Amino acid sequence: MLKISTKLSTTLSLALAIFFFLCCVAGLFALPALTEALINTVDNIGHRENISSLGRTLCLICAYCIVLTMLLADVLVFRLLLLVRKAEVFTDRAVSLIRGVSWCCLSLCIPFGCLGIYFQLAWIVCLLAVFLGICLRVCKNAFEEATRIKQENDLTV
Q1: pLDDT band, residue 47 (cuts 50/70/90)
Q2: CB count in 10 Å sphere of residue 138
Q3: What are the pLDDT digits (tens) for 76-126?
Q4: Do 18 and 78 touch, CB atoms closer than 8 A?
Q5: pLDDT, tens digit, for every residue of 3-21?
Q6: Residue whose C-alpha is closest to residue 109's, from 123, 89, 126, 86
Q7: Which among 71, 91, 73 is positioned nearest to 132, based on CA atoms?
Q8: DSSP secondary structure string for all residues of the chain
Q9: Residue 61 in contact with residue 121, Cβ under 8 Å?
């Protein structure tokens, strides 16, 4: 398996976070057209031809909530990567950033749950968001404990 240096890996992750941010910002402008195209896509799963104008507005609001939450999570990940680059991983600030990303993932289940009314596959994404949020909570708890141990050891020395 290909092994790259930590510095290169962090730089690559930062570049990907910036790229994702720019894609999300571009997506904000394209959301009305994208949402309408998704609603009008023919499939064998749902009955979306009966979506009222209020339902279409709900879908668009949910889409904006999803993208804005992803933008917030991306900014938090970017700030966490900057801490990793400075070797300040086991700090209260890093734990706080991981906590924020986990809450962003968990909060995504609300708009995806609402979209589940019209798009049954949204329920799967909703469950995946909850699972990812739980995994990040576990990582946050591990980092929090490691931070506590590090601070304790720093006081001992």
Answers
A1: low
A2: 10
A3: 999 999 999 999 999 999 999 999 999 999 999 999 999 998 888 899 999
A4: yes
A5: 888 889 999 999 999 999 9
A6: 126
A7: 73
A8: -----HHHHHHHHHHHHHHHHHHHHHHHHHHHHHHHHHHH---SS--GGG--HHHHHHHHHHHHHHHHHHHHHHHHHHHHHHHHHTT--SSHHHHHHHHHHHHHHHHTHHHHHHHTTT-TTHHHHHHHHHHHHHHHHHHHHHHHHHHHHHHHHHHH-
A9: no
Query: What is the structure's pLDDT at 117?
Result: 86
Q: Which amino acid is it at 11?
A: T
Structure tokens at 3: 């092994």
**Tokens 């799963």 correspond to what residue?**
45
